[in-house]
Design a protein that fits this description.
- Helix content is 83%, strand content 2%.
- It has a single domain (3-361), classed as NCX, central ion-binding region (A middle domain of Talin 1, Up-down Bundle), CATH 1.20.1420.
- The chain has helices spanning 3-33, 38-49, 52-63, 67-92, 99-120, 127-150, 154-164, 174-207, 211-223, 225-237, 243-265, 274-296, 303-324, 329-361; strands spanning 95-96, 124-125, 270-271, 300-301.
- The protein is globular.
- The chain is built from 14 helices and four strands.
- The termini are far apart.
- It is an all-alpha fold.
- The strands form two sheets. A two-stranded antiparallel ribbon has the order 1-4.
Amino acid sequence: MTLMTFVYLIAGLVLLVAGAEVLVRGAAKLAAQFGIPPLIIGLTVVAFGTSAPETAVSVQAALNGSGDLAIGNVVGSNIANVLLVLGATALVAPLIVSRQLIRLDVPIMIGASLVVYALAWDGALSRLEGALLFAGVISYTAFLIISSRKDKAAAEDDEFVKEFGLDEPAKPYAWALNLGFLIAGLVLLVVGSNFLVEGAVSLARALGLSELVIGLTVIAIGTSLPELATSIIAAFKGERDIAVGNIVGSNIFNLLCVLGLASMVSPNPISVAANALAFDFPVMIAVAVACLPIFFAGYRINRWEGLLFLAYYLAYTVYLVLSSTGRPFAEVFGEAMLGYALPLTAVTLVIIAGRAWHKQKA
């Protein structure tokens, strides 16, 4: 392992975060200049723009033939978005959950997770299956735009206007400047993804870890940095938090668009490791399902629930590292989590959701 491995990793992460920020702000202001409502910008450009690092990394990994890295990035990012990002943000301030998320978006996230799991069950994702996933994100986006025009939320409009400065008077030739930001963001994402993939593959080989584990941990956390930074800063500012909606939308985008595009551009079907199908995919689905009772209980994520999310993410990461290095404690640790911690948490969440349902009914 050389110094250049760490240089590639750090440079890649910095360029990805900077590229995502520049891309989102440039695209949001450019869309506003063409008269696109702020709410639609938030539902599409902002939510999907925060997944730009995942898209760049997975597509580049697929082109390089590193299928495990592409799969690990998406699955790991979805797990990190819920357990790490929402968990850390909820510790700063309890998060608000809209009713639409519980009735529509979270079920879609769960459904998309199950669909991807079913398509990957044979051990590969083909171009046709990638095209089906990509068609799903197009349909989802179209539905969001149509429904948002019918039911326009002024509060969310105000938030997107304030967050991205969409109410500022347009300067002469501002469209050219914003277009330049958009292009610069894309360039930074491409260069950053190349650096990050190169560094991740070198790190995996040097440590004797699989590309899947590196994708599930180092790359997943790195590509989730835009969501993490944005959510925590917003919580510190005391602004009305839209982190939950952005995270759910980002997870849907990761499953349908990122994996769809990666499968479509890959020279060969993207192989899916057996251990990912046996463990990591079920964890991703379980995390998505767990969102329903937690979100439903009071339509908010409390600090203790955020702490629970963080504890599970730490446990998940520790298990990955232990199992990948062949430590004997890994099996005992896994059995303790599956046999005791997870069932106890599931029962607790069901009781909480049941009490919330009875309270609302009363």
